[in-house]
Amino acid sequence: MNNTFEDNYKKMKSLLNQLEENKDNLDKSIDLYKEAMDIYNNLNKQIDEYKAKIKIIDSGNDE
Questions:
Q1: Which portions of this protein are annotated as coiled-coil regions (predicted)?
Q2: How far is CA 30 from CA 3, 15, 20, 51, 58, in A?
Q3: Cβ proximity of 5 and 42 under 8 Å
Q4: Torsion angle, CA of 23/21/37/29, rounded to 10 degrees?
Q5: Whose CA is closest to 15, among 1, 2, 28?
Q6: pLDDT at 60
Q7: Can you give the pLDDT at residue 62?
Q8: What are the mean pLDDT values of the chain's consecutive 10-residue runs (63 residues total)?
């Protein structure tokens, strides 16, 4: 999944809305939850990458 952070965030919000609305089908809820967790993990990786980039930029300003 190589989407932008913004694309992943929008998809996550959509999945969470679907989970809230889906109260009658446990199998579908589990599938939605799994997909949401995959995106959540990807978002965390992207945030870690952004933090690393910011750290590099900040370390260059210490001089």
A1: 2-53
A2: 23, 11, 12, 31, 41
A3: no
A4: 30
A5: 28
A6: 84
A7: 66
A8: 87 95 92 96 96 94 66
